[in-house]
Amino acid sequence: MNSAETPAPYGTGSPTAANASPPSAARIRTHHLQAAKDEGRRFAMLTAYDQYAAEIFDGAGIEVLLIGDSAANNVLGHATTLPITLDEMILFSRAVTRGARRALVVADLPFGSYEVSPAQGVESSIRLMKEGLVHAVKMEGGKDYADTVRAIVRAGIPVMAHVGFTPQSEHSLGGYRVQGRGDAGRRVVEDAVALAEAGAFCVLMEMVPADVAAEVDKAVSVPTIGIGAGSATTGQVLVWQDMAGLRAGRQAKFVKQFADVRSVLTQAARAYGDEVRDGSFPGPDHSFQG
Ligand code: KIV
């Protein structure tokens, strides 16, 4: 993506272990995503929860990295996204922002960190920005959360809205189900429009029919991102463990597996274990001589 950014008129600080990677001139900004929509280009987003995933995906040209609250299921082993805390999200965010030099890094506001009031949403977002060093936050919820989006944006924090299937509400939605079928499609469009009008820089849609997602993409001027929302959105996102085939078991219909990392790791672990047991590792090449 094109970047004609003026260098900061002040020092950006030197990178330290406690700092995120210094912004490069080519850092993806929210306006680059807007330009992609305006110019009919697409961009890719992947989740990342640690420094190596961030470094690899960033180096591979993925434009947006998401520290999803899906870290609850994909890293911490919970059954849902509900148990993950803001402190845990901040820890993962710090690792990802250290690894990403170019991508726009977005972190999820986890369940319980914004629902009480717009002020709670602002406070939690400030912590993700200040301690997690992310560049934007993502928030699940429909038009009822427009005031919260407005308040967070007023604080100078870019907000990505997340509508359609919102995993934090899976118990009230009755499980993992496509949202917006039939007449309910109107509600998805209304949610997206209200949140974009409240200042969201982007609208992410999860598990909505492709025609509804296409309608949303037409109805809002900001870029859209889909996961299980067809191909009309400006961007697409997948959980990296699904995309790379790390996770075992049944996959959602919208997942495409682009590699079989689980087999690669299994083979590596087996080969290592075999060599340790038969005494061939470590050999002279991997030993120090006196
Ligand atoms: O938490 C997450 O990974 C997400 C994506 C599925 C969009 O919200």
Structure in words:
This protein has helices spanning 30-38, 51-59, 71-74, 86-99, 118-130, 146-154, 170-173, 185-197, 210-219, 240-243, 261-278; strands spanning 43-47, 64-67, 104-108, 136-140, 159-164, 202-206, 224-227, 235-238. It has one domain: Phosphoenolpyruvate-binding domains (TIM Barrel), CATH 3.20.20. Helix 5 (118-130) crosses helix 6 (146-154) and helix 8 (185-197) runs parallel beside helix 9 (210-219). It is an alpha/beta fold. The termini are far apart. The chain contains 11 helices and 8 strands. The site of 3-methyl-2-oxobutanoic acid (KIV) has 12 residues, from strand 6.
Short recap of the structure:
The chain has helices spanning 30-38, 51-59, 71-74, 86-99, 118-130, 146-154, 170-173, 185-197, 210-219, 240-243, 261-278, and strands at 43-47, 64-67, 104-108, 136-140, 159-164, 202-206, 224-227, 235-238. The protein has 290 residues and is α/β, with parallel strands linked by helices.
How many alpha or pi helices?
11
Give the class-level CATH name: Alpha Beta
| Order of strands across the main sheet | 1-2-3-4-5-6-7-8
Shape: globular
Rg: 20 Å
- SSE sequence, one letter per element: HEHEHHEHEHEHHEHEEHH
Helix and strand content put the structural class at alpha/beta
Query: If classified by CATH, what would the architecture be?
Result: Alpha-Beta Barrel
Question: Which spans have pLDDT < 50 for at least 5 consecutive residues?
Answer: 11-19
What portion of residues is helical? 25-40%
Mean model confidence by pLDDT: 93
Q: Largest sheet, described in full? A: 8 strands, parallel, barrel
CATH-derived topology: TIM Barrel
Function: Catalyzes the reversible reaction in which hydroxymethyl group from 5,10-methylenetetrahydrofolate is transferred onto alpha-ketoisovalerate to form ketopantoate.
Protein name: 3-methyl-2-oxobutanoate hydroxymethyltransferase
Cofactor: Mg(2+)
Subunit structure: Homodecamer; pentamer of dimers.
